[in-house]
Write a structure and sequence with these properties.
Layout: E1 3-4, E2 7-8, E3 26-29, E4 32-35, E5 41-45, E6 48-50, H1 73-86, E7 95-98, H2 106-109, E8 114-118, E9 127-128, E10 142-148, H3 157-167, E11 168-179, H4 196-205, E12 209-217, H5 219-234, H6 240-262, E13 268-270, E14 282-288
Parallel strand pairs: 6-9, 7-8, 7-10, 8-9, 10-11
Antiparallel strand pairs: 1-2, 3-4, 4-5, 5-6, 11-14, 12-13, 12-14
């Protein structure tokens, strides 16, 4: 697939698209794209085809620097998870990154044929749509779908997985990462935290096989994160004397947390069904659409 400033070029996957209203062929015109059958018009915004309008409540994400020394332990685990499993794919595997946002994970799969999709027309995006209500893809056309830190922002995860089932090839896979012990973020579009029991049930409800499911654990990191929440969301509201006193306590806590880190398990990956640790940072799993 051709690339344009690290962005997929939608004209290269034109044959995979259809009119989501009537399944008719799409035709490009001077104002965007329209269906040759029902004449429904779909605009183009920043070179992305817009099949559904972004929700009014969305708070668009800013571009952030990612990489060594900048990512959290959770993000580092996500990066390693993706890299590991991408190595097992054929080089022509077509990847759809759903909820791609600012393209945080694009550097890891940019050498594969790829499509970036989101509900908001970020500059990095190829297709703008909510796949629960609008699905512009032909049936059985995708090899891999990425749902990285997305399911917690979806009101109906089962509906999204059902939509993706229709466009995945038999044997196609969904790579999923979903946080668990994490603050409310990207409000107001943050709807749930799912346990591994819920994810297992979700897969079976929608007909997918679970190839792997793992928890990401960071015992000391969770303690540090709790002090960080206090530092940034509670301490600024305190009166001056109380704020000074709490600052001293936080510095003492930081020293003790650092000491605790010397004698505690480092961040690790383990099956959530085989550990007594009840507090994962999140889960990483692969679902597969059965071949038969």
């Amino acid at each position: 697939m051709a690339e344009q400033d690290n962005k997929g070029e939608w004209r290269d996957f034109w044959g995979l698209l259809r009119c989501p209203q009537c399944n008719g062929n799409l035709v490009q015109d001077s104002n965007g794209v329209h269906c040759s059958v029902c004449q429904t018009h779909f605009p183009i915004d920043h070179n992305a085809i817009v099949f559904s309008q972004p929700p009014h409540a969305i708070n668009p994400s800013e571009k952030r620097e990612r990489g060594a020394g900048k990512d959290t332990h959770w993000r580092q685990a996500n990066n390693h998870f993706l890299q590991t499993h991408l190595q097992q794919l054929p080089e022509n595997a077509l990847i759809l990154d759903v909820g791609a946002g600012r393209g945080d994970f694009l550097p890891y799969y940019q050498h594969f044929p790829h499509i970036l999709l989101d509900i908001y027309p970020y500059p990095e995006i190829d297709i703008v749509c909510d796949l629960i209500t609008v699905n512009p893809f032909q049936a059985d056309c995708l090899d891999v779908v990425l749902l990285f830190n997305v399911l917690e922002h979806v009101q109906s995860p089962a509906a999204l997985l059902t939509s993706l089932w229709n466009v995945l090839k038999p044997g196609g896979k969904i790579f999923i990462t979903i946080p668990f012990m994490l603050k409310v973020h990207q409000a107001p579009l943050d709807f749930q935290r799912l346990t591994h029991y819920a994810l297992d049930e979700l897969a079976h409800q929608t007909g997918f096989n679970i190839i792997t499911i793992e928890g990401v654990y960071d015992p000391v990191g969770l303690i540090y994160e709790a002090t960080r929440y206090y530092r940034f969301w509670t301490r600024p509201e305190q009166k001056r004397l109380t704020r000074l006193f709490s600052g001293v306590i936080l510095k003492t806590l930081s020293w003790h947390i650092g000491l605790l880190n010397l004698f505690s398990p480092k961040p690790y990956i383990q099956s959530p069904f085989e550990t007594n640790n009840p507090a994962p940072l999140g889960y990483q799993l692969i679902l597969e659409k059965p071949s038969v």
